[in-house]
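Researcher: First entry.
Model:
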Amino acid sequence: MTRNTTAAAIAAIVLAFAPAVYAESSHARSAEMVNEMKPGEIRASKFIGSSVYDVHNQKIGSIKELIFEHSGRIDRAVVDVGTFLGMGGKLVAVNLSDIKTDNNRLTLDMTKDQLKAAHEFRYRETESTGSSTGPTARPHRAR
């Protein structure tokens, strides 16, 4: 009987400290510092402003903005299409997953005419950053 009591006491002690040990080890992993970029990653500062090309190597626009979801994941990129000397263009939002990196270039499987024909992207009138409340309405998603 004492053997069962001892085993139960040891099990209770182990179970009592298990969450603390797990939390400490997972916290240590999340606090690890990353010292370099992984292959295939691109910095946002290099991405924004980059030219976008179609599959025929023709420039079709440039990245103007990145749109984040409430969770923090980048969802869409805003492409400036048809602007010449700062005039005459429009903004089109495309899914970030549609933009590919080929030979150190950003490519999109769309033509300039297809982008010009797409719905124009508009910023919400009440933009803010760092707020603790999410958007009340989901913005229109251009396809």
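Researcher: Second entry.
Model:
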Amino acid sequence: MLAILKSPFPCTYGQKQNFYVALSIGIFVSFFLLVFEPFGIADSDNKYRSLRTAGFGVVSFLVLLFYYFVFPKIFKNYFSEKSYTLGKDMLASAGLILFVALGNGLYAQFFLHENAFESIWILIWQTFLVGIFPLSFLSLLQFNRKLKANIKASKEIELPNRSIESIQQRSNEAKFLFISEEQEKKQIPLDDLLYLESDGNYAFLNQIKDGVVSKTLHRTTLKSIESDNKFSNIQRCHRSFIVNLNQVVEINGNAQGLKLSLQNCDEIVPVSKKYISVIKNYFKAP
């Protein structure tokens, strides 16, 4: 069980689609409380009962937005995709549940003037018990589904012969990658390029020269590099990576996506779900 918890897992915190996830959950909370009126809501005779009850959904929405988008910026190391695991995701889900419960407890205490502070820890515990099991189950289900799909995708890709002659035949375009940096335009031998990695408004260029891997920082973005270079073998494979597909020697899959091993390089280049078809199509091409 501990080995599974340490398995790589895709981190979705900080991504735009979480806005709609938070909105959907907030609407569901309001709808559920208004329709079923649990926890003594039905006994209240307040004329603004419906509006006050719907407020719990609004609070849930706002707390989720904060947790989804602010927390990843504060705790960057925890939510780093490189080290994100199934166990971290389950722990993050538990924290999310606790924050929603705390937010709703404080809403009841300070905005509805209900004496909920004394029982706020009971509310948190009850919310945790109700939510942690389905969320954990969904995380495990998602892990198994993604793992099987990505392993299958990696096995469907057949790499070509890795001889120098075959690489040169495959790469029949121009021989240089161009990088526009401020007022200077640099040329990088295409055969030396391994991959590029984004770092905000900068990009790390990893290349190999005389069997030695070097890493240099350039003041440019991956988007700019993409617009300056149109090569079939130089492809975006992740929001933070561009890879030279002629350097790929092995492809494996895990729950996060595909993982590319490159010639003479210890670093593993990730391929996110969005770009798996791009990688498959390149190696299918004659």
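Model: Note on the second entry: The beta strands are 176-181, 184-189, 193-199, 202-209, 212-218, 234-238, 241-244, 248-254, 257-262, 268-271.
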